[in-house]
Amino acid sequence: MLLNDADTCTGSLGSCPTQDVSPPAALPHLRDLRLALFSGNYNCVTDGANQALNRLVAFLEAHGAAVRVYSPTVENPAFDPAGTLVSLPSVPVPKRPEYRIALSLPKSVQRDLDGFRPNVVHISAPDVAGYLAVRYARARGITAVASVHTRFDTYLGYYRLGALEGLARAYLRHLYSRCSQVYAPSPCMIDTLRADRIESDIRLWSRGVDRERFSPRHRDPAWRQANGWRPEDVVILFVGRLVLEKGLDTFARAVEQVRHEGSRPKVLVVGDGPAAGWFHNRLPEAVFTGHLSGASLSRAYASSDIFFNPSRTETFGNVTLEAMASGLPTVCAQSTGSTFLVRQGVTGFLVDPRASEDYAHWLARLVSDPELRRRTGRGGLRASGAFEWNEVMLPLARGYRAALDAQHRHRAPAAEISTHRMQPSGVGSAR
């Protein structure tokens, strides 16, 4: 059912691809947290940002925090939401109708917020609703924080709107500087935000991976054979939305160059999107699965041999981390989404996007060298162990606590002054 604004739906993680959020130990300092989370598309589609936010809500509620999520909704969402979801009125994003954008914060939603009484407002998308949510919080003396999930300013060049990048960065600088804390998923992204002159307390909130769900154990030789691949074939994997900003043209050109030089790798494409037809025409011999989830996605990762991610628009490479946990060597763009994860020659290879011919070089090396694949695949598997979901939630939980404590300290002197002024003459502390 498509929900109206200020109508709510509740759910657990259900079919959401984000399981196992039970906390390792109690965090009683979160019990007085009342978080209003504003999301661009909380469960409309399955992507890394939505998975992280749903995990966050489940984690916080498991520790006794009260959470209410405000987001656009659709009639047939990708998965059931974690927590309580309030629908925001929205319209489809031009050329990307699977995503929606909230254009207002109507009075019905503001009344819902007033009734919920949040003490922290967290925005995860720099849309109109996010801007209005920050304004709502500041007008009421409520702490506003933000998390950065996508480099929206870099999208513009893929849609011939590169001239607007400066304006977009100025807007992001204005919005994020009005938040007391801004959370970035990698040290590289923290540096980028500081270089953009974001005047806030910028903190690290990394991402995690479910190492039971993504594991080499899910490799399936029979499934590989069913796709027409022989045991000795080397499969290069792409996972993600099939949209131009994911680097689809770079991916296709690199594979074509590898084949031109004599190697014959197979290609597996997992995902769907508006550029699916274009991508299929560029790589007609590839196996296209469409969107996969659950065990099917785990099998696709583990049954491949090399993961190739040329995207420069992510702030954190969730798919890269999933590939590493599945035991795959990685070839990625040297950008904010991958430099935190990929160690050159140890877990895979980073390529300067300005030298795109190097993608084909490292792909060809991995295709022709089974020992190099095994060594870097094992390196990625070991490195993925540092990204356990419950552990990466702790810095954000501590940040919320610090924000609440600062809010209390700010309010306490004002309350004391007000009480003193209301006392009748002669009434005061004993001398």
What does this structure look like?
By secondary structure, the protein is α/β, with parallel strands linked by helices. The protein has 2 domains: 8-208 and 388-408, Glycogen Phosphorylase B (Rossmann fold, 3-Layer(aba) Sandwich), CATH 3.40.50; 216-384, Rossmann fold (3-Layer(aba) Sandwich), CATH 3.40.50.2000. It has helices at 48-62, 107-116, 128-139, 152-155, 165-177, 187-195, 221-226, 248-260, 276-282, 294-302, 318-325, 357-368, 370-384, 389-422, and strands at 8-11, 34-38, 66-71, 83-87, 90-93, 96-102, 120-123, 143-147, 181-184, 201-204, 235-239, 266-270, 287-290, 306-309, 330-333, 348-351. It has an 8-stranded mixed sheet, sandwiched between helices. It starts with 7 loop residues before the first strand and ends in a 9-residue tail after the last helix.
